[in-house]
Amino acid sequence: MRPKRSLGYLLPSSSLSSLLQIYTFSITQQTKTEKSFIMDAKNIEKLVQKAKDDILKEVHDRLPRKVGVIAVNHFKQNFRDGGWLDAGLHPWKKTKRQQQKGTDAKYGPLTSRRNHLMSSIQSKPGVGEVSIENPVPYASIHNDGGNITTHPTVSPKMKRFAWHMAYSLAGIKGKGPLPKELPQQAQFWRNLALTKKTKITINAHIPQRQFMGNSQELQAKVNKIIQESIEKIKNGIISLSNH
Q1: Rounded-to-integer distance, Cα 101 and Cα 117, Å
Q2: 157 burial class (0-12, 13-18, 19+ CB within 10 angstroms)?
Q3: Spatial separation of the C-alpha atoms in residues 108 and 94, rounded to whole Å
Q4: How many CB atoms lie within 10 A of CB 32?
Q5: The whole model's pTM is what?
């Protein structure tokens, strides 16, 4: 499963009508007040058509791309802030890794040296909308939280990783002997490294650490970029009518 949050921000048809009304009003006003301004019906039709084309281009192509960039950056910022931003920041629960000594304790929840989960957030613009996705297989369980049961094969690679985690959580560098008394998580990894089983069963509860979804702050950013686009189109229409 993967979290797929479709953020469809569509400029409503009423906005299109409003922009065309602004355009028509501008033309009408100038024909009444400027005797030197002469525009025949064919030129007016051309300008109106160009205005329509600009609006459709903005709504169907440019806005989805702009909103996609804003949304992706917003969701990635949650990783840097260590929490979910929606009507204020809601900090994520700290990990056991952070609470114990080790070389990886410096990394916050859902972050690592590679930051694979964060960097995998992507936008897919469509016609008049954009979806924000994260294709990483474990993204959904972290975003939504829940219980998982897995039956992984104990491979040599897994054992090497288990030794690495045991030493890291024990705060020991190099390949010296591990002490008999270890932190709980370090002991878990040592046991895994020493097991003779070929398959193991792991039951785990993953706390919710939401990083994608609807957010008041994100909606405010999107509303701002839409309003800026409307103003840009409106100003372009008025500028055209002055030529």
Answers
A1: 23
A2: exposed
A3: 7
A4: 9
A5: 0.70
pLDDT tens readout for residues 60-70: 888 889 989 99
**Contact status, residue 193 vs residue 162, Cβ threshold 8 Å:** yes
**CA atoms of 108 and 62, how far apart (whole Å):** 35
Q: Are 83 and 92 in contact (CB under 8 A)?
A: yes
pLDDT value of residue 37: 45
Residue among 160, 164, 184 nearest 173 (CA): 164
Sign of CA dihedral 161, 163, 164, 168: positive
Residue type, 22: I
Q: Which residue has the tokens 């051309």?
A: 46
With H, G, I as helix, E, B as strand and everything else as coil, classify residue 6.
Answer: strand
What is the residue type of 103? T
Q: 101-146: per-residue pLDDT in tens?
A: 667 778 899 998 899 999 999 998 888 888 898 989 889 999 999 9
d(CA 239, CA 140) in angstroms, rounded, equals 48
Gap between the Cα atoms of 197 and 118, Å rounded: 34
Name the residue with tokens 């960097």.
119
Using only C-alpha atoms, what is the Rg of the chain? Answer: 28
**DSSP 3-state of 130:** strand
Window from 106-115, 159-168, 197-206, 228-237 with minimum mean pLDDT = 228-237
In one-letter notation, the amino acid at residue 110 is: L
